[in-house]
Amino acid sequence: MITRNTVKIRMATLASALVLMLASAAGASPPHGKQWESVGPLFWEAEHEESAGGAIEEVGEEMEGSGAWVRRHSNSIDGRVIATELEPGHVYTVNIVVFNNPHACTSPTRAPLRCGLMDFFFNPAAEGAIMWGDGALARNPTVEFRMHRKVKTKSRVWLGSPAGLTNPAGAEITFDLLDMGLPIPDHLRDQRTSATFGCGTGEPNDAHSGGFCKDIAVNGM
Question: pTM for the whole thing?
Answer without folding.
Answer: 0.83
